[in-house]
Amino acid sequence: xxxxxxxxxxxxxxxxxxxxxxxxxxxxxxxxxxxxxxxxxxxxxxxxxxxxxxxxxxxxxxxxxxxxxxxxxxxxxxxxxxxxxxxxxxxxxxxxxxxxxxxxxxxxxxxxxxxxxxxxxxxxxxxxxxxxxxxxxxxxxxxxxxxxxxxxxxxxxxxxxxxxxxxxxxxxxxxxxxxxxxxxxxxxxxxxxxxxxxxxxxxxxxxxxxxxxxxxxxxxxxxxxxxxxxxxxxxxxxxxxxxxxxxxxxxxxxxxxxxxxxxxxxxxxxxxxxxxxxxxxxxxxxxxxxxxxxxxxxxxxxxxxxxxxxxxxxxxxxxxxxxxxx
Length: 326
Known about the structure:
By secondary structure, the protein is α/β, with parallel strands linked by helices.
């Protein structure tokens, strides 16, 4: 007997590799998987607006990248000594208005350029609930701890999501015809919505994605939500908050993701790189010892050999870092 529910993922036409450029946007789960991709030195760009949870805020962000919108002072507001943007996570907030704008516009410029060469857009929806600023009904990506009375909360319908994303995919395809879009639903539960409302929200997202995939070419679905809730259905796979997947769960989902979308050749490269990367990250008790210097020199030789073998992988910063430690 099998005492677990194994999630079978249908064969997919989507294939990822070290030659891809992957733009990733959405909830904090996207950053879990995205950081692993970055750690493996795959060209992945993570959340240029910071964490976004609902489908319409993510779509707004992509529209901004498509238009390469320049933010101005009118796009910011001040609250408790900080300048914020409703389109951005609080990581972009700043005590200085000019610095806030510079950080926002720099990130938009970089991400807009990256979008043009992106092969795969990886999107994670977290919740179907949206907050609209009562002043002008603008959908916000982050409320920045303003009073709840300043916002109207509602849940999107599947039709809202589908219509918005069909129009968006047309715009994306216009600038990048070969773009593939991979959707997933975050396994992180939004229990502040209430247990029942969280289920309704996740169901809305799942239905909307399913209908999108059946309607739009080059769109795909990865079942991270199902893996967490049905396969890893045990609280030992959660952090202490009993909401966020822990390191073991993230690694398990990553392994399924890797085996689903990356061919054996690239998985072998990942294994080779992991051994070198562990050596690079090693921090000794005495970093000035000759034994450690010898270890670094050997690691640098391995790193340069890896770079020569796989010249298309960007490792310049890793080489500079090791050389600076010698």
